[in-house]
Model the fold of this input.
Amino acid sequence: MTTPAFALQKAIYQWLSSDASLMAMLSGPGFYDAPSPGARFPYVTFGRASGFDWSSGMERGQEIFLTLQVWSNRRGRRETATVMKTIETRLRDFTPQMDGLRLILLDCELQEIKHDSEAALYRGTARYRALVEEVETA
Done:
């Protein structure tokens, strides 16, 4: 058994990587936990993931915070912003298949784009809040 946060991350990866238009925007495999030094831009990394008890008297659940980061070496913020918007739009229709879990809510709570002048990169950060509850599997 895996943690609900990891199960959600896996489902998000499967959902997003199945989108041909998003994958056409990204280089290489497109998504990484930790990119290799030679990874080509742009790409997306899975950042911090946190889970907190969200159980009620009748049901068990978790509140999960997941971070996706978009990395670009293009001049300006446009590429980073376009990839972030595509991800946000795609996740509006997110219908994950997670063993023993049901997604109740997925909202983007924060989006920001920062420039790292030393590395000459733009990093877009999107933090998502999710609520999942445990369900019995057959």
